[in-house]
Amino acid sequence: MERWVPRMKPRMDSREQIEETAAAWIFKRDVGDWTAADEASLAVWLEQSTAHRIVFLRLNSAWQQAARLKAVGAGIPPGKVPSPEELQHASFFGAKPMEGQLAAASPSRPRRSRVFYIALAASILFATLLAVTVHWFPNGSAYHTEIGGLEAIPMRDGSKVTLNTNSQVRVALTKTERHVTLERGEAFFEVAKDPGRPFVVTAGGQRVIAVGTQFSVRREGDDIRVVVTEGRVRVEPDVSTAARVPLAEVGAGGVARVGSSGVLVQKKQIPEAENDLSWRSGFLVFRETPLSDAVAEFNRYNEDQVILEDPQLAAMHIDGNFRSNNIVAFVRLLENGFHVTVEHDGNRILVRAR
Amino acid sequence: MDDTPSDWFVREILPHEAALGRYLRRVWPNSADVADIQHDTYIRVYEAAVKERPRSPKSFLFATARHLMTDRARRNRIVSIDLLEDLGSLNVLIDEVSPERRISARQQLMRMTAAFNRIPAKCREVVWMQRVEGLAHKEIAARLGIAKGTVEKQAFIGIRLLAEYFYGDTGARSEDGEMGSENEASHGQ
To answer: What is the ipTM of this complex?
Structure first.
């Protein structure tokens, strides 16, 4: 395989030349063909002069932030580069969802046969005559993201679902209810107001009910965590109507953890609660977070898994904002900032106290 | 908490680039020098921060730029009364009340979108495919039907322009997506 390494002249005084070299490093690092030797050469280059370092920091910081265009581009089918107009009017910025956008978010609905459509047409006619609500797709449409993914899905009722890494939902809109099943992972819901049609999220045996509000639900097995940033939601067990007893009402700034053993509601300031939802812009925000928790968060977003080998590392606390899918930068930071050594073993990144 | 000079620089200094650029352009007679003065200012600020982080990053940034311009003016024997007067009278308060970095993630994203929309079409495609779709070098070349070397060239241009438009004062100006929107006009009065 051909290899190239950004040119490293010992002296490069002109700002333009430095920018050229820095851009080469940045691109090379992100296109995948990056080795430990490259990392070392880059470190040497950065150490050569402050000029190198500041140019690199500046270009790299903007470049890394460009990854957040993902959030704006959610809904634009892969393989298409949106025009400036399309991006400017992306639903992310509050424009009305465009026609056909729901389909563009690539629901994984199975293909239907022609017979099915004839049957469907017949049943629509039948249902219209009877004027009853019919679930065409009883299980709804499924949407999912891969590890590291982030996807915004506009719903036909004007609500929006944003899927975090490695998550899956099933959406079913009926006349009496807007129903989302969180099958895996975490999702943030911006619910369009519609008092006649509650918005219900089921996950791990619980129901979270809202009328018009913003909240997220994260699922780990049967435990769920609900973060509310606006309005109120009600949490109740997902059992037959008669047996439903509300477990908790959670208002803005509230964080509820619900598991088989019970409910814990924590009242936070709204900005603090929003820190928990920074994943929507591709960031993880840590405030006095134990390193073990921070690592567990990172591992959700990346195929590469960081493993803390020493228990005393787990107890360290860290602060900062990180790009959720830049585990390389996170590990580099640990290496630079703390007394640790890092060893790569396949897709495992082993971190030990030095 | 552990905060490297690099983290500090990205967080506390870069967001002021637009304001700094406007300031330099207003007081320095030759706008062709502005990028170099800014670059030299950054170097000095960074080197100072390695030793000790300035308490008011923005004031420190502007003060450093002022010293550099004064040095440069002396070296170049620019005898512009206006300039020297400008530089002399700049001991004004530079408010730290509304640091631009406090702009919301959403505003930053709007600014990034505007910056991205301004880069030339070919670059834009390369940047999108790499940053958003995560395609490899080879895949980008194949999809655009261009050589790998051309992809690189476009990417390099894209990387530089993104930083310029995102941070710089020649950057995109969307209503609420602008970083340098506070009253930096006062720095020159």
So the answer is: 0.83
